[in-house]
Amino acid sequence: RRTARNKDRRVTQANDTPNDLAAFWMPFTDNAYFKAHPRMLVAAEGMHYTAADGHSVLDATGGLWCVNAGHCRPQIVEAIRQTAGRVDFAPTFQLGHPLAFEAASRLAMLMPQGLDKIFFTNSGSESVDTALKIALAYQKARGQAGRTRLIGRERAYHGVNFGGISVGGIVGNRRPYATLLPGVDHLRHTHDPARNAFSRGLPQHGAELADDLERLVALHGAETIAAVIVEPVAGSTGVLIPPVGYLQRLREICTKHDILLIFDEVITAFGRVGKATAAERFGVTPDLITMAKGLTNAAVPMGAVAVSRHVHDTIEGSGPDGIHLFHGYTYSGHPLASAAAIATLDLYVTEGLFEKAIELEDYWADAVHSLKGARHVIDCRNIGLIGGIELEPRPGAPTMRAMDVFRRAFDEGLLIRTTGDIIALSPPLILEKSHIDRIFGKLAEILAAVD
Ligand code: PMP
Fold first, then answer.
1. Beta strand 386-391 with 377-383: parallel, antiparallel or unpaired?
2. Which terminus of the chain has a smaller tally of CB atoms within 10 A, N or C?
């Protein structure tokens, strides 16, 4: 019977869709709905996916904010292929392999000055929890063990591990899991449609919200606070762009009270905002930067934390036992991921993709804001090659209007992403103006058609 079932499972329909979808418990998905209406992607190249029925889908979301150099780039594929045949796996505990060191050096060169120590992980969530642990280890190592409090922000997404959901600010991400880190507090988020609707680039109003940190310092005492973590631009919770001066002010307050500042750049790093990092774009240097996604163009899972030399040296210089940061993953600096990272970082430089994002930013911004006045649209926002289009929720059915747009767009050859009633766009940086025209032409058409 088992053999029969297995055989059955191998049978695929003419359109390449497997006929048994039951076993895979899909993340962040209405599993029952998907399995009744599967949308399968079976191939990808450049700006496009191919769906199981053969139709081509223009990727306006860079996979999940991660395929910054476009899909299936031969240089990256080849680097992975060659490495897989040469050194499939090598530990980086007490041993090493050259690719991990090379990937770290290459990545360090893209980071703001001073953030030149790289810890490798396998995902954004792991990068966040790693950064939080490094912050705590640093405070302990410098004799400030009382600084255990972590400060996050409302409406923040920092992945799904326990540290990340504790400092994160999404209720649905927190509520089902009663256990969260103790001693965490949150700044207010900066999204203020009443003052900032239809801002182009950075919104004008809201820098003073950084003063929330002063209030938390007054409430808890700076001597209890280890670190503050924020996304320079929050993506997953709806494209929340920092008001002019906000990040600078946050940096000043952290410096004043000797609190570490962590930028979660899982989506903003690697050209998404036209520079290697949002830190560089906004001229604000944090003490740690978390990354993932675009680091390998998403071809192999990999994350990283860039750490200031001072934080690193303080931890490494502490204690007598030789291992000063008792933390790591079997796959930290995995050879295939390292090879993919090196090839990806090469591509970003040789093709000038960060600069290209800057060059296209005005055209992109015009296109995003062309939807002002379109049916249902209550806000449009943009920075770099990120766009957010907020829809008025359908009465009694929040999120469903955006979901309808998503489904219709997919069927008509355009991949977008929605979060709540917000359409979030983050195309590969290789896109051309003609792609931008198609994305927004199609969206305008669909918005006019959905209820
Ligand atoms: N931090 C931020 C800012 C993110 O946007 C994400 C993912 N969208 C994560 C962390 C989590 O990354 P991952 O899904 O790779 O764990």
1. antiparallel
2. N
